[in-house]
Amino acid sequence: MSAKILIYAVDDEQSIRELYSCALENADFAVSCFSDADGLFAALRDRIPDIILLDIMLDGRDGYQILAALRRDVRYAAVPVIMVSAKGSELDKVKGLNLGADDYLSKPIDILEVEKVLK
After folding, report:
1. Strand ranges (DSSP E) for 1-119?
2. Of 6, 100, 17, which Cα lies nearest the Cα of 47?
3. Burial grade of 91 (CB within 10 A; 0-12, 13-18, 19 or more)
4. Bridge partners, 34 (sequence order)
5. For residues 21, 97, 112 and 17, what is the CA-based torsion angle, rounded to 10 degrees?
6. What is the pLDDT of residues 9-55, one digit of tens each?
7. Contact assessment for residue 58 and residue 86, using Cβ atoms and an 8 Å cutoff
8. Per-residue CA distances from 111 to 71, 74, 105, 106 (Å)
9. Three-state secondary-structure class, residue 117
């Protein structure tokens, strides 16, 4: 039996983190959720995920800053990052993709769409 795909999800909204955990674990993914950059980077020291779901508007370092830091670090540069944000303008999407995001989904999220992108 193969190991489950490990997803790290970063979002400052508790309800979104709970949605990720519940829905994605039911879809047979392993999920760890974090409210900020500090939690994400602490977890990355222990284990590198298969995919990162990353909100933009966060307290402290925002998603763009986190993405830039991930892409600068050779340990994490190849980890696929999907931006998930309420900032849905074309400019926001282009900025995220130019910084190295692999995809960009706008909130409100459709969890079935997220599952489809992850598979």
Report:
1. 6-10, 30-34, 51-54, 81-85, 103-106
2. 6
3. exposed
4. 10
5. 20
6. 999 999 999 999 999 999 999 999 999 999 999 999 999 999 999 99
7. no
8. 26, 30, 11, 11
9. helix
* Residues facing 33 on adjacent strands: 9
For the chain, how far is it from start to end, CA to CA, in angstroms?
17
- Measured CA to CA, the distance from residue 106 to residue 83 in angstroms comes to 8
For residue range 54-90, list pLDDT tens digits in order. 999 998 999 999 999 999 999 999 999 999 988 767 7
Find the helix or strand (DSSP H, E) in which 18 lies: helix 14-19
